[in-house]
Amino acid sequence: MRALSVDELLRLEDAFPDRYRAIIPTAGWLGHRFSEIAGTKVSHARFLERKLDVREVVVEVGGRLYVGPPKTDASRRTVTMPAFLADVLAEHVTRYPDASGQGYLFTSPEGGPLRRSNFTHRVFIPAVHKAGFDDLRFHDLRHTAASLAIAAGAHPKQIQARLGHASITTTLNRYGHILPTLDERLADELDAVARNAIDDARKVVAIR
User: Fold this and answer.
1) Distance between CA atoms of 154 and 172, rounded to whole angstroms?
2) Distance between start and end Cα atoms, the chain
3) How many C-beta neighbours within 10 Å does residue 207 have?
4) Distance of CA 72 to the CA centre of its chain
5) pTM (two decimals)
6) Crossing angle, helix 6-14 and helix 140-151, to 10 degrees?
7) With 0-12 CB in 10 A as exposed, 13-18 as middle and 19+ as buried, what is 181?
8) Beta bridge partners of 54
9) DSSP helix/strand/coil, 98
10) pLDDT by residue (tens digit) across 71-98?
């Protein structure tokens, strides 16, 4: 498991061809799986509300593409985007509309959904080498999203919902080693609350 820092995520994004560049912040900040990104349609995005729905996935098996709903109810979800990402995706849509008419958000140059095999070998691996992350997997962008959410103070249940984990146990098993920092932050906040309350109480006593 590897998680990129914000600076590393930006470096990776810069190494990608412009047509596919918006995929990196989508995976790196939201934690979408590749199949979910490939299955996202423009109609699944509500840019003004900053909402992105996960309603379909595109999976490649034996060279054939299969389109269908996510495997679990938890995977079928709506994620709120950071404002900057909503702007990035809105611009991407205007620059690279789906030439096939199927309405996919991210498409191949010919139009239609992305094939993971082609994307991996023609786009992802060359960009990863260019950015200097030779051991990086696409799934590590999902770990990056979890790490960034934890750093921002997200509760494990929020992370579970955003990543589409069926169980909180899965979230805790995978990212529990990062969560102690939240416990320390909570202790500091409780300390501040206690100190303020004690100070207020002493002021009341002093007035009396």
Assistant:
1) 13
2) 59
3) 6
4) 18
5) 0.83
6) 140
7) exposed
8) 77
9) coil
10) 899 899 999 999 999 999 999 999 999 9
